[in-house]
Amino acid sequence: MRGQAALLEAGLLVVATVLTFVVAQHLFKVQYVQSDYALKINAERILIHWADTGVAYAVAYGAAGSGDPQYAKAALETLLPPNVGYDLTVISLTRGVIYTITRGYDPARSDGATLILMRGEGRIISLRLSR
Amino acid sequence: MRGQVLIGVAALIFVITLLLLIALPKRTIGPTAAIENYTTAKREVEHILRNTAEEAAYATANTLEAVLKNTQNLPDTLKNLYAQHFNVLFTDKAGAYAVLRGVFCKLDALDVKVSGDNGYFYISSIYAVATCDNGVMAFINSAADVKVELKNLGAFGGVKAAVNLTRDQKQIQLITYAAALYNVTRDNTEVKPYRFPIMGTFDPRESIWYFNITGLHYIQVAIPPEYCMMSNPTYYVAIAAASVGEGAATVVLAKPSGKLCGT
Question: What is residue B198's three-state secondary structure?
Answer without folding.
Answer: strand
